[in-house]
Amino acid sequence: MSRSSAPGLHPRNRHRNGYDFPALIKASPELARFVRVGPHGRATIDFADPLAVKALNRALLLACYRLRFWDIPPGYLCPPIPGRVDYLHHLADLLGEEQAAPHGKAVRLLDIGTGANCIYPLLGHQEYGWRFVASDIETASLKSAALIVRSNGLERSIDCRHQPDPKRIFDGIIHPGEQFAATLCNPPFHASAQEAGAGSERKLRNLARSKGERHRVTQGSRLNFGGKHNELWCEGGELAFLRRMIAESARFASQCRWFTTLVSKGENLAPARKVLGQIGVSEVREIPMHQGNKITRILAWRFENKPS
């Protein structure tokens, strides 16, 4: 069989039936050397191999999203495409409500922490035709993101902006008079490098167990999932980041229809909701995202004085 299943993805997610490896290899022949038969007799790759994951991403972005160039520097976060585009599909539902998901350049979004991969703006533009502002605190990440944008001729649709103050999120990025349909963010999950390393080790052990193998901890293996400081951890972890984002959003209530973010840890929802109640939002939504056995959520909020 040529496909591997990906249960629980959004109905519009073109990857919900798995990867068509023959078609992907036809689009991007470099992928062929990484594809093998998995323990269940289906074609797959070694997801603990960063080169294999990067090759898969390139093939997906070319074959499914018509992106001619995509690359990231060594050691940076290599995102899973199906999960990333799922966020965008759920966001389209939120923006469309009972109507069809909105398309076109009139829809403008802000991606907080776009990273070196710039994945949300790329997928959002190619799937829905949306325009983006892509922000990040690290200049090297923005340089990589800008190269991807420029190499695909998307400069008019994706504006990369540097956040000079790592303690700020919207301030300095949202300009006076600007309007956004929504903001989105995949915040750093961990509170320290040690915690992030332990999380990577768990992922690697789980991958090895699924292949009937035993994972051996090595210095190199810690790097397989990639991710720099600001991509994986920040002081106080995910909850501290959420609290800062929510508090700061109140100052830009009239410029964004919806504020949204992923929340990886379920125990962070209640304290985040408490902060939302303190700043007087008019509506809060929790949108579950199911990806195999993993469940994450989108937390969304808006204010009464939201833009029309």
From TrEMBL:
SUPFAM superfamilies: S-adenosyl-L-methionine-dependent methyltransferases. It is an enzyme of class 2 (transferase). One of its GO terms (cellular component) is cytoplasm. One of its GO terms (biological process) is rRNA base methylation. The keyword Glycoprotein does not apply. This is Ribosomal RNA large subunit methyltransferase F. It holds the Pfam family Methyltransf_10. GO terms for molecular function: 23S rRNA (adenine(1618)-N(6))-methyltransferase activity. Gene3D superfamilies: Vaccinia Virus protein VP39. It comes from Aeromonas simiae. It is found in: Cytoplasm. Keywords: Cytoplasm, Methyltransferase, rRNA processing, S-adenosyl-L-methionine, Transferase. Specifically methylates the adenine in position 1618 of 23S rRNA. Its main location: cytoplasm. Belongs to the methyltransferase superfamily. METTL16/RlmF family. InterPro entries: METTL16/RlmF, rRNA_lsu_MeTfrase_F, SAM-dependent_MTases_sf. It comes from the Bacteria. Its EC number is 2.1.1.181. It catalyses: adenosine(1618) in 23S rRNA + S-adenosyl-L-methionine = N(6)-methyladenosine(1618) in 23S rRNA + S-adenosyl-L-homocysteine + H(+).
